[in-house]
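Anyone up for a design puzzle?
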């Protein structure tokens, strides 16, 4: 009788052990399947975000060999279902400063708070209006080149906007006037009353003769 009880107990323990292994394998398989299915979903969400915010008809102004400033224009599209704010940008151009600029009552200044673009809306970057400004450019960009642009959003995310072509923008397209000889050290973007940014020539601006270190930054 004792021998029979021992055999029965051994069989019962074996059955429980096998059942436990089976459940563990099923749980492990389920976890692997969940992880595998989650990875593509995450990648799709990332791709979707990048595709929802784009720059259409983007262009970088070609620079003169002795120039140290340029600007980026185009139309930013927000095709997502959420409002966004573009607080800044970066690019493949080696520049000391990248800023979002605007012109208010003829005064050029950094746009505080960034570009707010509603869901399904657009923001136009244009001469004499809101635009991306690059200052202290180390090596001028020439017509025919392309510049990689990345948008920086208020929530800390980044959107790769792709390659933007560099082209010549004549005086008829962007007449910024002549600022040669102006002391950059005494020039305050937010305090240039009466100066029309639409009549300023970024390309002809003698940035090299300005005291860049004393530029009033906003």
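Challenge accepted. My sequence:
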């Amino acid at each position: 009788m004792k021998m029979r009880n021992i055999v029965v107990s051994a069989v019962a323990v074996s059955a429980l052990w096998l059942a436990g292994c089976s459940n563990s394998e099923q749980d492990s398989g389920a976890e692997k399947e969940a992880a595998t299915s989650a990875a593509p979903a995450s990648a799709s969400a990332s791709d979707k975000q990048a595709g929802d915010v784009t720059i259409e008809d983007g262009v970088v102004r070609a620079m003169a060999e002795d120039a140290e400033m340029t600007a980026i224009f185009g139309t930013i599209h927000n095709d997502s279902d959420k409002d966004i704010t573009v607080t800044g940008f970066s690019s493949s151009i080696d520049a000391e400063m990248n800023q979002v600029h605007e012109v208010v009552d003829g005064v050029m200044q950094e746009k505080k708070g960034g570009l707010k673009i509603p869901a399904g809306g657009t923001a136009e970057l244009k001469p004499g209006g809101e635009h991306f400004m690059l200052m202290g450019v180390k090596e001028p960009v020439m017509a025919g080149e392309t510049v990689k642009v990345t948008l920086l959003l208020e929530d800390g995310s980044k959107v790769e906007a792709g390659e933007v072509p560099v082209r010549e923008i004549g005086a008829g397209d962007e007449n910024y006037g002549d600022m040669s000889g102006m002391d950059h050290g005494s020039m305050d973007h937010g305090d240039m009353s009466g100066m029309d940014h639409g009549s300023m020539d970024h390309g002809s601006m003698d940035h090299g003769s300005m005291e860049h270190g004393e530029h009033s930054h906003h």
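A detail worth pointing out: The first strand starts at residue 53 and ends at 61.
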